[in-house]
Amino acid sequence: MSNINQVNREAAAKAEAEARNIYTVEHPVRPEDHWQRTGHRGGVLWLTGLSGAGKSTVALGVEHTLHRLGYQAFVLDGDNVRAGLNSDLGFSPEDRHENLRRIAEVAALFAQSGSLVVTAFISPYQADRDQARAIIGEGFHEVHVHAGLDVCEARDPKGLYKRARAGLIPNFTGISAPFEAPANPDLIIDTSKYDIGESIHATIDHIETHFTLNQSLVRVA
Ligand SMILES: Nc1ncnc2c1ncn2[C@@H]1O[C@H](COP(=O)(O)OP(=O)(O)OP(=O)(O)O)[C@@H](O)[C@H]1O
Ligand SMILES: [Mg+2]
User: CATH number, domain at 72?
Assistant: First the structure.
């Protein structure tokens, strides 16, 4: 999203809030001030992919590596969020949509505070990922953690495919519900070709290229 679209969206959200007597405050510490302190931009790597593709494995490995490298990083992962913040939501289409909307809003706040957020949700619909991009803005990167259905089903780390094939889980992505592959992802991690270490490394490379401050970013900030 361009800066102009982002500014327009923020202005529209502010006007809409004010119509409801809600007046948002400006933070004295700007995102760029956080960046100067941490040495990296805030942002969101939005991992999307089939169950078993490796989103959680990669996300948690990336968080661990970034922490060791001195980055401020945090993972938002499916069941952890559903256990707390979104414990009132189920798996109807409306609730799945609301689940991802709230996650995108939370991720945007983390990013605003200077963190690099790695989200690990199947998020099978392009419309939901586009909504996340609109909420988060410039620092949003869509990452397709890819492995074919056959590979994911053979891995079946939670036994979910087996249960879905037995008809015990309705609307299971890849079996009885669609997965819309990103048309234009910022990064593809093919976990059927890369091992876990290589998958994490490729993601770290992407982060170092796009989020680590260099001289020109320091001058802009
Ligand atoms: N290159 C790889 N990257 C990530 N995981 C891999 C890779 N190769 C094999 N695996 C294995 O694939 C499985 C991926 O499971 P994981 O829970 O990370 O998937 P997920 O995408 O988070 O699924 P879910 O949507 O159900 O949470 C793990 O058992 C992991 O060890
Ligand atoms: Mg997972």
Answer: 3.40.50.300
